[in-house]
Amino acid sequence: MDKLLVVNLFVLVLCSVGRVNSSAYDKIVTHSRIRARKEGPNVCALQQVMGSSKKYFSTCRNWHKGSICGKKAVVLYECCPGYMKIEGMKGCPAAAPIDDVYGTLGLVKATVTQQYINESQLRGDIEGPTSVTLFAPSNDAWDLLDPNEKLKLAENENQELYNTLLFHTVNQRLVTKDMKNGLVVPTMSEDHNLYINHYGNGVVTVNCARIIYGNQVATNGAVHVIDRVIRPVSGKIKDILEENENLSSFTTAASAADLLDKLGEAGHYTLFVPTDEAFDKLPSGYLERIIENNAVITALVKYHLLNSVQCAEAIMAGSVYETEEGSSIEIGCDGDFLTVNGIKMVLKKDIVTSNGVIHLIDQVLFPDSAKEITELMGESQSYFRDYFSEMDFASAMRPNLEYTLLAPLNGVFTEEVSSIAKSELKLLLENHILKVKVSLSELYTGQQLETLSGKFLRAFIYRTAVCLENACMVRGSKEGKNGALHLVGSLVKTSDKTLYKVLKDEGQFKIFLSLMETAGLYDMLKEEGAYTIFAPTDDAFKELTSEDLTLLKSDVTALKNILLYHISNGIFISGGLERGVTNMLKTMQGLNLPVKFVNNSVNVNSVDVPDTDLMATNGVVHVVKNVLYPPGENVITDSEKRLKIEFFMLLTKEISLCIDVKSTEVKYKEVVKAEPSLTKITRYVEKDPTISKVVRVIDRQPINKVTRVISGDQEFSDDSAEISSYLLCSFTFRYRCR
């Protein structure tokens, strides 16, 4: 086997084993080592938040942004855990000497913890024949303690200090790969546990204290340096709520929502608890009112609860979390402050309990489901919100009923719209308020929904869009306690006119309407139904003479086929077209009509549609400036339109087809004895046509190939393969455009 292949396989196996046995913390340290590889062996790159002593083995996201918690971070290069420098040599080429747990504290510079272990007489307990893990507070962590707490530690001949250190010690060796998220381990302090969380960003916390230097293996265990002194945990979230008088309002709300008992059970929760002062900021009597509405109070309380433990020190950038209510909140950080939905509102963080963590906040969080629908409108719908208020639509909405708002985006309100008379605009906007609450998932094609004005809007469901009349919805739907909000990209246009009336009133479809009447399709435009019409304007027929139009009308069957190629069964709104692909609409003629949405405009049969979505009670009209023909290999020029019309007409009859190419004159006659059909037109040649294959010749044996074309006025006979005046009869041939 190739040596290089063997080496690659060996490296692959090693990497795979590393991935299996490593943790998120270990991977982040490995990445930090890779980032610092130019600094020498066993060097790790860390990020330090400017203006503080906080350092992180950071994620790719923080590394590339050059910041942590929104604050600029500088890069530091230090020896990776377990390694040290040698004077005169690059990097950290030496493995740190291994010592017992007590001696290792000096190596990791946790000298205050080492000192306190001496003073409290704990050294003897951790130096015996045992294996222990010590979560050692850094020197800075001890400095963060309140002076009164420090004095307390010295009471009873350092007994409090001894108990505190014992609480940081576990009677087994643990390294970060053993520390699974949600792990609970008993400490050497009787009846007390440590609650470990291991996050995807590599942060590991112990009772919400972050491990800042981990995996320093000792002869009798392991040492992990943490960023704070941790306290024993007693009680669950429910106990904290009931014991704290300043949290009585939220406790009352949680009880009304039947959630208090859940917070007294085992689990892994994060609860953002508004203080009583936060509830005092709400309108007078608000809490009392919503407590009577079980759905609203339940939604409000659950919106403050996460089904995971999110310690403050694990948050390095904004991340979205799903709440128990079902919607999401963003938890982030701004320097040392924890933020919720981008707002600095956390008064006290990381109150650790046996079933989770509490963060106290100074604002009540409101999910959409606990808001009035008028409160759901955001800045992108501010124009509609202003009109809604100015025209006092709220007074027309009954308090105990549910509604749906179709809120147009601000860009919809152009100068033209703003110039509409106020009374007319009010009628128009009333059609954006439905008298029923309806979510996107409840809509279906054919559904009719009544508006505040009394009109009914039709729903249309497409592959990638949901539309009401001509207005299709954009991302951002919300549901409130008394209704739903959907954002739309255009004003809703309703119509009380039939397709016939729309076409007639527009005044530019006279020829099309005349042809529809000749073809016997007039009534379709007036009757109930659901049609999409690509209607050619009068200008689309300007290349045709009166003689051409007479020819077009002379064969009703052929004319009907041409017209039905412009009509599709069903209502297709321009906003319902899928972008980036060709949308095939089956016409009533039977063939598919290729429609695209290109550069913010509709294009049918490669022809632009200048005006779309003229709504009617029985369909929709899209304006086209060309007569549409079934697609071939090429498009024939305007000067050959008559020829193409005749081709199309011939397709609908059993005929013998003859074409004089020089004069572009088409001659045809009915076939009596045989039933030939023109099976395929693939190419049109102005000069020297090549006849590739004869499909059928009438009244004689089939001719397989025509090898020459003779110019002149010769007649086609049973015994001849010659064709006069470029005469092509009943066979497959090719055509091309100029």
Q: Helicity range of the residues?
A: 25-40%
Q: Report the sheet with the most strands, covering strand number, pairing sense and barrel closure.
A: 7 strands, mixed
Number of helices: 22
Number of strands: 40
> Roughly how many Å is the radius of gyration?
40 Å
**Shape, per Cα inertia axes:** elongated
Q: Which blocks of ≥5 consecutive residues have pLDDT under 50?
A: 1-20, 632-640, 651-738
Can you tell me about this structure?
By secondary structure, the chain is of the alpha+beta class. It contains 22 helices and 40 strands. The protein is 25% helix and 26% strand. Strand 26 and strand 27 (471-480) form a beta hairpin. The protein starts with a helix and ends with a strand. Mean pLDDT is 84; it is low at 1-20, 632-640 and 651-738. Keywords: Disulfide bond, Signal. It comes from Oryzias sinensis (Chinese medaka). It holds the Pfam family Fasciclin.
Short description:
Helices cover 25% and strands 26% of the residues.
Which secondary structure elements does this structure contain, and how are they paired or packed?
Elements lengths: L2 H19 L2 H12 L7 E7 L5 E2 L3 H6 L1 E2 L2 E9 L3 E2 L9 E2 L5 H7 L3 H9 L3 H5 L4 E6 L1 H5 L3 H7 L1 H13 L1 E2 L12 E4 L6 E6 L5 E3 L2 E10 L2 E6 L10 H7 L4 H9 L12 E6 L1 H5 L5 H6 L2 H9 L2 E2 L12 E4 L5 E7 L2 E4 L2 E2 L1 E8 L2 E6 L20 H9 L12 E6 L6 H4 L3 H9 L2 E2 L13 E3 L5 E6 L4 E3 L2 E10 L2 E6 L10 H8 L3 H9 L12 E6 L9 H9 L1 H9 L2 E3 L13 E4 L5 E7 L2 E4 L2 E3 L1 E6 L2 E6 L16 H11 L3 E6 L4 E6 L10 E3 L49 E2 L4
Parallel strand pairs: 7-13, 14-21, 22-28, 29-36, 39-40
Antiparallel strand pairs: 1-2, 1-4, 3-4, 5-6, 7-8, 9-10, 10-11, 11-12, 12-13, 14-15, 16-17, 17-18, 18-19, 20-21, 22-23, 24-25, 25-26, 26-27, 27-28, 29-30, 31-32, 32-33, 33-34, 35-36, 37-38
Helix pairs in contact: 4-5, 5-9, 11-14, 21-22
